[in-house]
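Morning run. Coffee first, then this:
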Amino acid sequence: MTSRIGPRTVGTDGNDFKPREKVGSHYQMSASLKSEIKKLTVVHLLIWTLVAAQVMVAHLKLLSHDVVAMPYQWEYPYLLSLLPSLLNAMAMPKNNISYLVISMISAGLFSVAPLIFGAMEMFPVAQQLYRHGKAYRFIFGFSAVSVMYLLMVIAIQVHAWQIYYSKKLLDAWFNTTQEKKRK
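And here it is:
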């Protein structure tokens, strides 16, 4: 025990830390995984904003199609990838396992699946660009297929890490609830 004034209490030389309570490892893991998921969600929101901006600019004809190309078909279902992030955000404060599971499943459906479809949709255009050096769609002077493939590579990594960390978080939460039920 320390006192605000005066010398240290007799018998407490600082070596009595072993019986003190420590934060459980599953709580530490939960906090660090939540932090990582939040960082990945911010990156996902930036990617989503770029895709949404391209769709909006192209459809509202704010800029010429020479400057911003019409969106590929995969970009429309990818706009639904905001739902898993919202479910993830709703699951975090109260460690809601149900929302986290739904978020993981919907991330596969609304985030990863459109990206895989997009890779297949744009492959012939990318192949033509590689073989003949011809591009017909542009985003601010760059080949649209190159820009979108770059965006897709980053997005796939973000979503894969989100699902991985969500699974680890689900395991941590599930183990905690199982321990509580045993007691």
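The two ends are 32 Å apart (CA to CA). Good start to the day.
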